[in-house]
Amino acid sequence: MGVENGQNGHAAHGNQDDGSDTAAVNTRKSVIGLIPVAKDYAWGIRGMDSRVARYALESKAIDEVDPDCPYAELWIGTHPKGPSKLKTGEYLRDAIGEDLPFLFKVLSAGKALSIQAHPDKENAKRLNIEDPVNYGDANHKPEMAIALTPFEAMCGFRRLEEISYLIKKHPEFAACISEEAKLAVFLAQEPLAQRDALQKLFSSFMTCDPEVSSHQLNLLLIRLQAEQSQLHPHPHDEPAWERKCARAVLRLAQQFHGDPGAMAPLFLNYLLIAPGESFFMAANEPHAYVAGEIIECMACSDNVVRAGLTPKFKDVDNLVNMLTYSMGGPSIDAGAYMAESTDVIRYTPPCPEFEVMVLTIEPGHKLTYKNPKIPAVLIILEGSGHLDGKLCRPGRSYYWPPDADDLEFFVEQCRRGPMKVAMAHKNRHLDRPTAVNRDDFGGTSSHRISVPASPMPFLGMGGGRSPSSNYQKRFARDFEENDNAAIPEL
Ligand SMILES: O=P(O)(O)OC[C@H]1O[C@@H](O)[C@@H](O)[C@@H](O)[C@@H]1O
Question: Can you tell which superkingdom this protein's organism belongs to (predicted)?
């Protein structure tokens, strides 16, 4: 049994506000305040608009927020490029005695991240030997994202039928792909032939003569802009997903002038993930996050193989060679309630290194969470309350030693909203994942298209469901009509 909850509970201990161990004032062994590491990358959100900046300030990872700095990632873990420290001054790694198998992050994306994939273990070892400067880790990096705001992301290849349709629809895109690759795409029927065709297409697009691709990108942008501004209005019956796709190309091109990677929405699924929903990116699957804020957990590695939409190091050859070329987006997973309590949702990926729990403590409620007896880290996502008597605020993070006591959360009745806490530790439910590994054809597609398509079985398990379900419909209108629609948070 992991949790006990109840109403009108009382904080068991004194109200310290320093995030430090409570040993001095009571005999309970509790969490220890933790100082994460903040990273600024070009795609981050600037200044206090960035959750990463706000959390970093609260957790003392930074002393002040620079309004011009793009705060992108907050790292909680033992990775050597961003090792967390405890408030006692000790490194987290030294306190645990070994590395955590996972890295826990918060991401604030104001513009698109690179078109990328993370290597599997075999590729990671090879890349680390061949190019240790750009690939510092010999470990794989499967990752799971949980949206804190509506989150836009390109994940996985579109189905070949869709790509073939988009090649015919956009001659400028077609001009960046070799005749041989196009023929393969148009003719492929069987799964293996489809994968082969997809590899040909991706490789051909990525290695297209830059003069040709930037000229074609310009032509495409001129045409799409004219259609947007109604000079050449699109047909009335043009499906919403096609308009969304065109808008995404225009937006990416604005962010990365002259980069043909802006055409990525024509071959990658473009998804909108609702707050509280998650998706799992297995190794060797292409993706590019576009905008929004997430928590992310991954195996402890920082290896990214990139091909475009980035000022960072690109490695097209390795990316082309390592992808699985399976098709369809990842399944979207709403997590699963822990059997004991609806106050705790677990997000469990199909990899042993990590899982994430999101706890919600309503005003006037308390929640006791049993120590999982393995090293765990926590971050307060929103709301204020008490953790073993310590006052908690959004952004504070903690290490929970395996030999500490159970944790007692309490939120006073007078608070206006619940306190939400995210916790990561090694995967204890590997046999019952809520997220699925997309290891074959049959993932979901970002939409249904009106061209003949093969059946698209949905591989969801646990709380998984198709991205075309409820929330997609709920948010689609805002998303369509106003890219800057007010963003509800988790
Ligand atoms: O290489 P860039 O574009 O900065 O993106 C790097 C980031 O990509 C995301 O998909 C995640 O994997 C993050 O953990 C990673 O740090």
Answer: Eukaryota
